[in-house]
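Give me structure tokens for this 317-residue protein.
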Amino acid sequence: MELATVGTPALWGAFFLFVLVMLALDLGVFHRKAHVIAPKEALTWSGIWVGLALLFAAFVWGRFGPQAGMEFLTGYVVEKSLSVDNIFVFIVIFSALRIPPLHQHRVLFWGILTALVLRAAMIFAGAALLTRFHWLMYVFGAFLVFTGVKLYRDRNVEDTHPEQSALARWVKKVIPFTDKLDAGHFVTVENGKRVATPLLMALMLVEVTDVIFAVDSIPAVFAVTLDPFIVFTSNIFAILGLRSLFFLVSGAVEKFTYLKVGLSLVLMFVGLKMTLVDWVKVPAAVSLLVIVALLGGAIFFSIRKAAAAQPPSRAPS
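Here you go.
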């Protein structure tokens, strides 16, 4: 089986150039000096990234037709929604390692930069495997259904000690660490020796977390489309906007009680769609509507529950 793609070498090159320019502007201009990301700034950048994704969707739609445009939008929504799970874990990592808000953007920037490279490798490997072994579609689909069921079952289970994970313990055996922060440095000098700071541990945990979640999210997008270019670009747009989304919703993400339920249903839906791809054809527009309905319902009922839990305001006497 050969996977068709809308991505020409020129288009791939132009997209990589766009990503490099945006990353350079991000770190070299807008966030050259470390500062706490305020909600207003996070909202602005979230709007910018979503706007750029929509403009790219319009380009794909106009250049390659409604089917490709709808597939990009659906893949972007899937990836964007699943990235919220990353935010839950990032909050725990920064809290456990006592990383102040001043330095969190720096950790996320380098973590996401690494994630872009790792995800590109995983997407190309996945595309190559699906090209050669069609039966892997059923394996990936079943894995997504299993992951969705597991996410639903473990929706109330939290890992509150990432700094005590097997990875963290192994890294501390290999690399000398200090518990002290040295501004925004990942490595510092203590007692005449170079040691790693908690920022480096946070960076490594963020990178590993993204790889773990990518094992779920990348097959989920392949369930929407088999076009490697659309899978890659929808992933990258969602990941590039992850930092601003983190600072925007990190303070309120725990209030979305039913969000993990919605995410688990999304995974089960796309898993079934992928497993039954040879027998049931689900149009991209229908997939998008179902996914938006599942996520919208989860958010609506979460907000409704949070509002009901608020004590009634007493009228002034």
